[in-house]
Amino acid sequence: MERAAPSLTDAVRRHAVPLDSGVPKELERELSARRIALLGEASHGTHEFYALRAEITRMLIERHGCRAVVIEGDWPDAWRVNQWVRWQEDGSAEDALAGFERFPTWMWRNTVMRDFITWMREHNRERPPWEQVGLYGMDLYSLFGSVRAVLAYLDEADPAAARRARRRYACFDHFQQNLQAYGYAAGFGTGFSCEDAVVAQLTDLLQTAPLEGGTHADPDALFHAQQNARLVRNAEQYYRSMFRGRASSWNLRDLHMADTLQALSAHLQERTGTAPRMAVWAHNSHLGDARATGMAEQGEWNVGELMRKRWPDDTFLVGFTTHDGTVRAATQWDQPGRVRQVRPGLEGSWEALFHGVGERFLLLPAADARLRETLDEPLLERAIGVIYLPETERRSHYFEARIGAQFDAVIHIDRTRAVEPLDEGDPQPAGPEVPETYPEGV
Fold first, then answer.
1. Rounded-to-integer distance, Cα 167 and Cα 41, Å
2. Which of 37, 328, 334, 363 could in theory staple to 45 by disulfide, Cβ–Cβ 3.0 to 4.6 A?
3. How far from each other are the two terminal CA atoms of the chain, in whole angstroms?
4. Are 284 and 36 in contact (CB under 8 A)?
5. What's the pLDDT tens digit per position in 35-50?
6. Domains, the chain, ranges and CATH?
């Protein structure tokens, strides 16, 4: 790929807004006009991406009434944090984050996340429940954790319904919780599938009304159970599709994330009477509009594209890039994360182009049609997930993107450092729940 033309670098330099301290007023103005802020990251292991998302989100909570933070994490694990930040659980921030025990543990068990949820808890201290800010997960890898959450709710709310749910979910017992084996058997026409069972269970819970008396009377508790049943249904479909190809399983995963955002928005609006502001934290690959990247050529969509289609006037997409530094990542799935050197951005990439502009700056293509047109050029863009393979970096971590159409705003931090985990312990094996994004892991 040819080096970017000097005129493109000059144009970016003219439009770059320096990032000194705090959220730039230009970015706050754009975000305040939208209800849903999708805040990306170029890796799952970079301190500055987490820190800047936390800073932007605090601004949205304090000054613009944001009511939900939604992360690329599993629903049951995030719900534990949600209860803690809303004063429904005791213990420390580390205790609240302890549910994130599967690989990669550093993705949410890190110092930035600990400090951020501690701030959230203090922010919520004197506020009534309908004014508190919650934290939620939107990923779908926690099939068995969600099964346990559904059964725990029904054991208290309706023991007879709990017995029916156990019979339905027992369908997975044939595979001893090996979801890869289940996906292989169900996806290749053996005649065995748990699809009908999980659909029936979700249908039952969606038709359930909150009962009077006891903790199960809380409509948030019922919504939690319903969302877990929805996750089980979608995860079953996801694992059944894994052997059909990456596009099929990727699309199901991102569709589940988008549907989770929509269901959560509807629930919070029903609870408060107002459509909620939400801040969403996930990888650039999920939150940048797939139509402006090479993903579209592979038949893939993502959350950013779906949100722009569903809520075009409410959604604002923020992407992050870096040129070099360090990152916390593993060399293969289920291995401990280590601090690794990030190679300088490849020639012909947005990262290399931005390296020639400045150390820390913001671009706002959504606010400037000329800038958006200038950035509507296909260059390489880097994506590091929980796996980093510098020896095959061009093939493993780069794709083409028209960054001005991909994002409404881009934040570039030229040199970044690895995120700091809460502990250095080895992650719990993911076992059968290996995502289709292996080996990059986004």
1. 41
2. 328
3. 25
4. no
5. 999 999 999 999 999 9
6. 6-139+246-416 (3.40.1660.10)
Inter-residue contact 349 to 379 (CB < 8 Å): yes
CA angle 99, 55, 41 (to 5 degrees): 65
- Tokens 């706002």 belong to residue: 364
Token pair of 430, please?
A: 């993911």
Task: Find, among 259, 216, 219, the residue nearest to 235 by Cα.
Answer: 259
Strand 277-281 and strand 379-382: pairing?
Answer: unpaired
Burial of residue 25 (CB within 10 Å: 0-12, 13-18, 19+) is exposed
- d(CA 7, CA 442) in angstroms, rounded, equals 33
Confidence (pLDDT) at 429: 45
Q: What is the pLDDT of residues 283-336, one digit of tens each?
A: 999 999 999 999 999 999 999 999 999 999 999 999 999 999 999 999 998 899
Q: How many CB atoms lie within 10 A of CB 191?
A: 6
Rounded Cα distance between 259 and 426, Å, is 33
- The C-alpha atoms of residue 231 and residue 382 are separated, in whole angstroms, by 30
Q: For residues 270 and 218, what is the distance between their CA atoms, to the nearest angstrom?
A: 13
Which pLDDT tens digit goes with each residue over 51-64?
999 999 999 999 99
CA atoms within 13 A on the CB side of 6: 0
